[in-house]
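Re: the 343-residue chain
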Amino acid sequence: MAVTGNTTQGPAEVHREIPDAATAWWTVGAGQGEFRREPLPGVSDGEASVRTLFTGVSRGTEALVARGEVPASERERMRAPFQEGDFPFPVKYGYLNVGTVEHGPAALRGRTVFSLFPHQSHFVVPAEALHPVPDAVPPRRAVLAGAVETAVNVLWDAAPLVGDRVIVVGAGMIGCAIARVARGIPGSEVTLVDVDPARAATAEALGVGFALATEEIAPADVVIEASGAGAGLQLALGLAPTDGEVIVASWYGSRPVSLELGADFHSRRIALRPSQVGEVAARRRGSRTTRNRLALALRLLEDPAFDELLAGASTWRQLPEVTAALADGTAGELCHTIDWTAE
């Protein structure tokens, strides 16, 4: 993972005068960040204190944050539940946190839990913000809960049927999670499409097909775009069936995307429909909550195949390099995890 730009690598000892403090990572400029020591509040009734084991880097969203590219119009909607600071900078951001409950309700003490908390060593939150991780899910794999929850929501939007041919354009963390969950639909034929031939091995490990974006690919019944690239979205349009639609899982932030909407786009009557994890998909909004959806994602993570989505790992002290790589585009496509157990 390359390091570029100026990163402020403040040691964990900064602000040592604060007792009972946590170490938190703040992004303070494009590709730049610093460690801050933050006081921990006492644990009140209905709250719990958590010691972080791992955090995950949600590459697509956190790259936009690291570059300061969250559009002004979306800065409120894009706030993470426990974010501090404001976009673009300085901001404490992140939402893939797995830790152990040290103090709190008896039912949670000692449990491994997932929460939507930023990159920080310890924290105190309402107990209802914590989601117990099933015993069969290793803590590091549990950081994928956000990706699998997104996959569930995208598939609720796409609504593939038994025996459908499903194409997912983009074999990054979200695209791979969608493909693995879709594979469980009886009779389905799932294909991941990507520009990187190395993703063929990942697709094989996930039990789905693979095609290079440059190959001739037959249209499918369901097409989902998760590439984060305008070229991937253009390709998805060409793979949709007549009178079909493309479910757009990518979020492009403030980057413009150009599409060619001539040729047979109108005659085939292709629709573009976004899917966004901030709300439960419309098809399930009356019967499911975001908590139900996340609990389902954690159960799905009992599948060991999801370990294929865990790529690089760094200690928390390497967050300056991770942030720089997110900003300059050299970060990997799959899930990079941050280990908070190291001194």
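The chain is about 20% helix and 25% strand.
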